[in-house]
Amino acid sequence: MIEETILQILSGKNLQFDEAFELARTADPTELYRAADELRKKLHNNSLDLCSIVNAKSGKCSEDCKFCAQSAHYDVEVVTYDVVDVAQAVQLAKENEQYGVQRFSLVTAGRTVSERHLEEFRTLYKQLSEQTGLLFCASMGLLSREKAMKLKEMGVTRYHCNLETSRSYFPSVCTTHTWDEKVATIKIARDAGLDVCSGGIIGMGESLAQRLELAFELRELDILSIPLNILTPIKDTPFAHMQPLSVGEVLTCVAMFRLINPLAVIRLAGGRNLLGDEQRKCFTAGANGAIVGNYLTTVGNTLSEDIEMFRALGFDLKINQR
Ligand code: SF4
């Protein structure tokens, strides 16, 4: 049955929700992961899409996302700074570039980015484009049309706005903004000529069906870069005691995201280190991208460990000599 499904996907037929749900619940897991890996290889060869992020502004945020250390609604100690030091950010970008990272994103905490901060980032993007050959992204909360246009002017090519979870589960994760506001931001970014990256976090108490709903919603929006985070429960946040997903649940999710969004980069992001050595299996179950370096408020693998792992898995990586 899975072989048939893969052939249909390769012929351009989209998987339907009921078929996907059935597969996720009943397919032999080893077969499912192998099929997703085969589909990944057929459509993306052994290329791997690596990107890196820097926390460009860190601090308490007005929103109440239950997974987030930076929300002012919860009493979590976080390092706060106004704007990241330009020289430090450029240095970090250069190190990443040497390891074959293609994209670099400035990420800010908060509902949206202020005009003042946006202007400060103009200098940072300018320095980055003068000193590296990277492509630039931004992840700065909800956007207005004007802000999106400004980012485009600064040389940003891709905007990141995670849906976080399915529309049906979103109110259990955040009440200070809506899922639809995120979709509106995605549309604003696109209208301004920016490419879009959007995914979510799994393991926040959502059901398997809701995980698949997210994958379908991303397909509806034509998202071609999908970061998949695994919840890192943070002490003193409402999700601190969330039961971790099993490795099997994570792998099934990766494989299903590949089957539902065959042409997208399925990008392993925050929380993959929670799986330890088992995270390798995600890259033989359909994933073909990763966020490398440190992730916002949680700690990831080191770049060199990651590169070694990807090479051992057979991915083609170009090391830049700039
Ligand atoms: S996820 Fe973003 S918007 Fe939500 S609380 Fe954290 S920083 Fe604020």
CATH class identity: Alpha Beta
Number of domains: 1
CATH architecture: Alpha-Beta Barrel
Question: What value does the Rg take, in angstroms?
Answer: 19 Å
CATH superfamily: Aldolase class I
Taken from the alpha-carbon principal axes, the silhouette is: globular
Strand content: 5-15%
Structure summary, number of beta strands:
9
Alpha plus pi helix count:
10
Order of helices and strands: HHHEHEHEHEHEEHEHEEH
Name the strands of the widest sheet in spatial order.
5-4-3-2-1-9-8-7-6
Uncertain segments of ≥5 residues (pLDDT<50)?
none
- What is the average per-residue confidence, as pLDDT, rounded to a whole number? 93
Could you say which small molecules are bound to this protein? iron/sulfur cluster
Descriptive notes:
The protein is of the alpha/beta class. The protein has one domain (2-312): Aldolase class I (TIM Barrel), CATH 3.20.20. Helices cover 39% and strands 14% of the residues. It contains 10 helices and 9 strands. Strands 5-4-3-2-1-9-8-7-6 form a 9-stranded parallel beta sheet. Helix 2 (17-26) packs antiparallel against helix 8, helix 3 packs across helix 9 and helix 8 packs parallel to helix 9. The longest helix has 17 residues, at 115-131. The mean pLDDT is 93. The structure holds iron/sulfur cluster (SF4). Iron/sulfur cluster (SF4) is lined by residues 61, 63, 65, 68, 70-71, 109-111, 141.
